[in-house]
Records
---
Amino acid sequence: MQVYRGMLFHASYAFLHNRSNSFGYGFRAHRVQALLTRHIAYEVDGQVYLTFQVRRYADPLTPLPGGRSEADEYEQTVVLLKLSRQVTSRCGASLQYGHFRNGALGSAGFYRKNVYAFSVDMSL
C-alpha cells in the first residue's frame, strides 16, 4: 500500500514460510514494514522507517549448554528516524537515530542497540 497526500506513506506485509534456514530449522514469519517521508521545514526532510518481524520455528531449536531449551519464537524490530537537508547542490547533511531489537521473545536471549549517526554527503 502506498499513499501520498502531503507526505509519502508506504506499508507492506509479508508472510514467509521457509522449510529450512541455514541451521536446518524451518519457520513461518510475519513481517510488517512501513516508511513515512515528509518535508518538514527550512528544506529539511524527515523519514521514519519501521520493520517488525515475528518468526515461529516448526521444530524445537537445539538446547543451550546446560540442557535449557532455546526459545521457539524470534522477534526483530528496527526503527529508524532520519532528518536530512541538502545544504548546497553538491553537499547534504543528515542526522539519524536507529533502535534495533533482535532475539528470542520474552525477557532473555535478545539484545537492544541504539545507534546515532551524523553524515555529510558531497559530490565532486
---
Amino acid sequence: MKKLSLILTLVLMLAVNVTVLAQDDEEEERDFLEVGLFGGMVIPSEGVADFVSRGDDYNVAMGAKTGLGLGAEIGAFLNANLVLGVNFTYSTHSVDATDGEIGDLKHRFYNPSVYLKYYLFGESNFAPYAKIHVGVDNPRFVTQVVDFESGGLKMRELSYDPVFSFGAGGGLFYYTSDYSGLFLEVNGHYGNSKNTQGSFQDATYDFNESSILVDVHLGVKVFFSTGE
C-alpha cells in the first residue's frame, strides 16, 4: 500500500512537472509584440466634409474629400489574444471647393492614439480581430483668413488646437509566413473638433464641425515571439 501510494505520488509529481513545463513552453513561444505599417483611404463624413470657412463678410465651402492615409503601430500582447499598443496615422484631403486660390492646399490630420485589440486566432491562416482606440487629433484645416499686413484675404493651412478623439473597428489578418502577414482594417473615427480654434495674426478662427472619418487600411504586420 505504501509502495502504491509512493508510485501514485511520483506519477502525480511527474504529471504536474510535465504540465508546468508545457505551460512554460507555451508561454515562451507566445507572441509578445506586433509591428505594423499600413496605408489606404480615409473617408470624411459629415462635419469635416461640410466645413465652411466663415468670416464677417464671407462664407467659403471647404469640405474635405476622400483622402490618403498612412500609419504605423506597435503593440504588446497582454495575453495570447489581447494587444495594447500605440499608433500614429496621417491623412491628407483635397478641398471640395472651386476657389482658385486654394491651389495645392489640403486638410491634414496628425493622429497619435492608444489602441486595444482582440484577436481570434485559430487553426486557419486567417485571424479576425476587433479594435478600439483613443487619442488626440492635431488638425490643419484649409481656412480663409484675413491678412492684416496686406489688407486682404488669403487661403492658409491653419493649425487648430489638438482635440480628443476615439473610435472602433475591426480587421482581418492573414498569415503569409509563421510570424508575418497582411491585414485589412476598417475603423470609424470621431474627433471632437467642433470647438477647436486656430489663430493667424492674433485673429481667432473657429472650426465648428466634428471630424467624423472612416479609415480603410491595408498593411503588413510582423509578430515577434518569445520563442525566437
---
Amino acid sequence: MKTYAKILTAALLTTAVLHAEDSSMPELTGVVPLSELVRQGVITQQQADQIKGAAVGIEPRVVSKSHVEKITISGYAQFAFAYATGHDDVLPNPPANNTFYLPNIIFGVSADIGSGFSTTVQANLGDGFSSRNYIEKAYVEKEFEGYGNVQAGFKKAHFGFEQYTSSRYIPAPNRSIATNYFTSSYRRSGSGTFATSSAGVGTTRLGLGARRLGVYWAGEIPGVDGFDYFAEVTQGYQNFSAPSNTGSQNHMGYSGGVQYGSKFEGGKYLFGINGTYMPEGNSWNNGGLSQTNSIGAINPFGKLDYGNFRIMGEFFAANMENGKASYLNGPTSISGFNSGTSNPLGGTVYVSYMIGKLEPIFRFSAIDSDQGGVNPNVVKKGVSFGGAQPGTTTLTSNGQGFFNAAQSYYAGVNYYFLGTDAKIGLGWEHIQFGGRYNGTSFGGANASEDVIRFAAQVVF
C-alpha cells in the first residue's frame, strides 16, 4: 500500500499542476491539502483516502537555478503587405507581386547569472525562416564594468548602421536598397541558374553585414563618456557553414568601428565609422579553377535628433577584388578569373518629423556598383526583370536581369500608439534601375518599379 500511495501521490501532484495551469480552475497557491483538491474536483475522495497521512499536499511554484540573477523574455512581431509593379523599357513588364508577409517574429531569452556573465538566444520565426537558419543571434557575454563587453557566438557583423539597428526602430517598413546590397547575404547574379556559367557573372550583393560566428568586443574608454569602439574577428562567411565552391572555409573576417554620441539642449547626436575586411570575400573554387579575392569597405554614418526632427544617414565605399561582371561564356566567366577590381559606392538618408503621434518620413537610397551588378532583389518583395543569358547579347524575359546602378525614393507616414512598441506604417517606394547588363557590358535598357507598403508591429 505504501508503494501504491507514493505512485498515486506523484501522479496526483502532476495532475494538480496541470489543473492549476487551466485558466478555468481557481488558482492554487501555497500548500494545498488533499481536502481542497477533492473539493475542487482535482482528485476523488476515494483517491484521497488511499493516501496515508491527511496532511499530504502540493506547493505549486516556479523554480529557477539559484545562481541566475535575472531572466528576460522579449520579442516583437511584424506584419506587412506589399504590392509591387514593374516597368521595363524594352521587355514586357514583369508580373505584379501582391503579397502579405511576416518580416520578423522575434522571440528571445536572456539570462544574467551574475559577475558580468550572461547569455542571449534569439530566434526569428518570420519571413525567410524556411530559407535560412532560424537563429537570429546566440552568444555568451562577459561584461567588464567601465571597459566594455565581449560576446562569443553568432550575430550580425558590425557593419552597416541601418543593418545592425533593429528593424523595430527603422522608420520605413523595409531596409534600404543600399543596405541590402552592401550588407545582406552574399550573392552572385545567375549563380546556379545557367549551365554555361554555373558560378554566376557578377557579384550583386556583398554580404558585409551578414550574421557570422565569432568573437565581438564592444569597448568603452574610461572617463570619455559617449565614445565607443568595436573590434570583431569572425568566420569570413555567413551563417554556420561556407557556401559550396567558395573555398572560404578556412579564412577569417575582420570588422569594427568607432562612434561618439552626446546630448545637447533639445536633442542628441551620434556619428561614427565602421570598417570591414574579408580576405577571401569574393573567392571561388570550381572545376579546378581557384581564385582568392578580397572585399574591403568603410561605412561612415550619423544621426541627429533635434526636437521633433530626425535625420539619419550613412555612406558605403567598397573595394571588391575582381568584382566586375564578366562577359565570357563557360566556367571562366565568373567574377574573379577575368574581370577587374570594382569600387561600388552607395548611401541612404532618412528625414522625418513627429507631429503628435504621426510621423511623415522620406528616404533616399542609391547604389553605383562600378560594373559589379545590382540585382533587383535588393528591393524587399519587389519584381524581377529579364536580361541577357551568359554568352549571349539578347535580352529575354527568362534571362536574369541585373543593372549597374539603382536609386530609390520612399515616402510614407507612421502612427505610434505606444511609441515603437505598437505602431503602423504606410508608404510608397519608387525604384529606378539603370545600365542593364547586356551580355558584354552595362548600358542596356533601364527599368523601374513601384511598391506600396503597409506594416504593423508590436513589441514585448
---
Amino acid sequence: MRYIMTIICLMGFLVTNVTLAEQMDAQLNMAKRSLATIETKLNNIKRGDVNEYNRLTKQLDKAAELLKSTESKAHPGYYNSVQQYTALYQSMINMAQDWQSNQPSNSTSKVNSSVANNQSITEQTPAAVDANAILAKYQKEGRPTLGNYPNPSDVKQWAQKMRSLMSTELQQDLALLKQSNIAASDAERVSRWIGGEFQQQIQQDVRSQLQSFNSIADTAAQLASQINKIQPNDKMRVFNFANGENGQTNYSNLEKGLVASANAMAIEEVFPKIADPNRQAQIGVIALAQQNFSDMREQAKQTATELANMPKKQKPKKQSAGIKGIEQELWLNGRRLAHLDKKGSIWMNSSDVGDITGDGTIWVRSSDLGSIEADGKVWFRGRHIGTLEENGRVWRNSSHVGTIDSDGKVWISSSATGEIVPFNEEWKRAAIIYFFTDLFDE
C-alpha cells in the first residue's frame, strides 16, 4: 500500500535517541502550511465533490515529499507533521469509503475511477498481522545473536539489527499493530512490551556485549603497555615475557585483544553515544606491542639457545625468591590495606598478621606454612595454590586474578584499584597480600 509505505518511511526517520533540536528548514515549513490548508479544505469539502477530493490527494502527496526531503527531522515540528499527515490520510480513506457506500452507482464509479487514476487511495484490505509474531522478535530468544568467535563484520551486522529493533523496525511494527484485524487489547499489550521493557533489555544487551569486548581489550592493553616499555637490551625480561608457553599466552592475549577492540569499535560505529573516545589509541598500543612482541619472541629463542649451551651449575638447596627488604605501604580503593616493614612483617589494621621473609618463606602466626619459590610458584601447607609470573600476572588455582604493572599499579577486575608505595620493582610480597589475603586468617 503506497500510503502505508509512505507513513512507514517517514516514521523510520524518527530514531529513538535524537535529542538535538534544530532550525526548521523551508521544506518542513512548507509541509506544515500545506497540511494545515489540506485539513481546512477537507473539513469543508462537499459530499461527492470528487474533483476537489483528488486535488487534495495530490496536495497530500506533495506534502509527503516535502516531509521526506526535509533536513529538519530532529525538529519537534517534524514528528507532529508526520502525525498530522497520517491522520489526514486516514480521514480521506474514511471519506472515500463513506461516499462509495452511500452515493449512487454512477457517482461511486467516478470516485473509484479518480482514485484508481491518481493512486490516491488503495482499496486493499491490510494483510493479516500476527501480534504475537511481532512480540517474539523482541523477546530474548528472538533477538539477534552473535557466535562465539565473531569478527568485526559479524558484530556490525548484529549491532545494526539491534539498532533497527530500537528505531525503524520498531516504528514499522507499531504502525502494523494499529491495523483493524488486531484486537485492541493485543495491540496495546504488544505495543507496551516492544516499546517499553524489551527496549531496555535490548539496550542492556548492547552494553553487555560491548563490556565483554572491553574486558578482553583492556587486559590486552595492560599487557601491551608492559611489553612496549621493555628495552631490547633487557634480555632476561624479554625472555621471561616471550619464551615458551608464557610467550604463546602473551601473544594470544594480544591477538584476542586486537580483535576485541575492533569488535567493540564495530558496535560503537552503530551506537556512537556509548563509544570510547580512546578506542583508536587502544588499538594502536596493542598493535605496536604485537609488532614488538614478534621481535621479542625471536630474541627469546636466541636467549633460550644461549642458556641451554651454558655450563650447568650446581643447584643450591634453596633458591632465593629475590625479595627485596624494603618498607612499603599497600593501598586499595584509596585506603591503606597493609604496611610491610624491611624484615618482611605484615601489618594490617595495626596487627602483625605474619611475615614474608627475603627467601620467600610465608609465616603465619609464627608458623612456617608456605613459600614463594624462585620460579614464582606459591605454596601453602604443602600445596601449590598459585603462580606469580615475571610479567606481573597473578594466578590462583589456574585462574588469572589480577596484574601488577611495571609502575606498581595493582589491577583487579580490569581496574587499577591498588598501588604499591614505594614500588622499586618489588611486588611479590604485595601480590600475596592483595590476592592471597585469606592465608593470614589462619
